[in-house]
Amino acid sequence: MSPRNGQVSALVALITNAAKTVEAHYAKSSKPYVPSLDDLTPHPLDSEISSPELREAIQTLEGACAQLCATVARPNHTVLNKLMQIYEPGCLHVAITFKIPDILLEQPEGLHISEIGRKTGVDEEKLGRILRLLASRHLFREVKPDIFANNRLSLQLLSTNPLNGLAFHFTDENNKAVTVLPDVLANPEWGSSHSAAHSAWNKSTGYPEPLFNWFEGATPEGANQGARFGLGMIGWGNAIEAGGVVTGFPWKELPPGSTVCDVGGGVGNISMQLAKAYPQLQLKLQDTHDRIMQAQTEVWPKEVPEAIAEQRIEFKAIDFFTEPPIKGCDIYYLKNIVHDWPTNECIKILSGVRHAMKPTSRVLIQEYVLQRANRVAENESAFIQAPEPLLPNYGVGRIRQYNLDLDMMVMLNGKERTLEEFLKLGEESGLSFVKLWEVGELGVVEFRLSA
């Protein structure tokens, strides 16, 4: 069999073996089965950090299934389907705007579109067509003609789920901004600009300052979007298993009383996990004034009240472009911060951290570390490459990092970075590279003070 003819069989073999790995992993859990999409009961593995074996198997499945379909179908068939995916975000935006998952939660067996239309005030015929598209994409299910119900995926869009806030971000302000990206790229001034005020989002809204200024209450609408984005970051962290850093980095080896400063930590999703797992740590949470107030008065009293009572957490607002974080901490932790900003702004942030560090301090930057899509010799790659004939970066299996890279471009003129780009940022900020930690979907780049 020639290599070309064998590619389909090779992809099918990868899918088969990965599926067996997933089934075996689920068989070892307290509910020893892979749940159906129609199962509304949470599975224990839904809230656990995936093992490296399970994560790789799922990435292989996603990448190989997509690559197989793209390989065997006519090119125009595949491209047309990709072009028409534009409608899914709009339909999702309708679903969360009118709280359809919440409405269906009251009727697990399903609800007719006439009743959903009555409760939402939306035309039932149009609503049914929107829900049918989503059901065909495995969000919701049509149990009988024009009767729709929740499934495992639509439950993630409940208004009480933090992922709901992120869903609004992507289907609302982000979705509107990406439509003007070609106009921005073609603009002689903005196309080559890396200013956080020259993004596609700025173009779509007409707002002249960076996105986070808008989130900080430039208008009531901006403040509302900022608050839901803050909660959405909890959903984001849960979905990408950012909590892998809680067990993947040796926090327990730090001496009791060690201080960890979560710089730009929003409402403190990771800090809350650290507070629960390592009560010997002293935590400092720093972000903009509004996010710190939200964390201090709403989120932490509900989620980790014991950390407040035991004085293990300090809340302090910061403008990390003009002032350093709290001085003398043992660890300065920045998750999904550097990617928000162009290079010059990143150097300002990291230089401020450097000024706050003591000689033994370490900086941990947790973000995607971008892998290119071309295959290289194994000794030339910082990553384990996917088995052939998969793309070496797993293709669709790891597509989220490239989607987020474009999100950063569209919203802030920021970017995800390769390891080489992180090392250059550190060097220009007076920091020396120590180690790349693999803690799941994201990487953690560790720095120390330069000698």
From TrEMBL:
Domain O-methyltransferase C-terminal: 255-431
Keyword set includes Methyltransferase: yes
Keywords from the UniProt entry: Methyltransferase, S-adenosyl-L-methionine, Transferase
ATP-binding found in the keyword field: no
InterPro entries, alphabetized: COMT-like, COMT_C, COMT_dimerisation, SAM-dependent_MTases_sf, WH-like_DNA-bd_sf, WH_DNA-bd_sf
GO molecular function: O-methyltransferase activity; protein dimerization activity
Protein name stated in the entry: 3-O-methyltransferase 2
One Pfam family it belongs to: Methyltransf_2
GO biological process, one term: methylation
Domain O-methyltransferase dimerisation: 86-158
PROSITE patterns for the chain: SAM_OMT_II
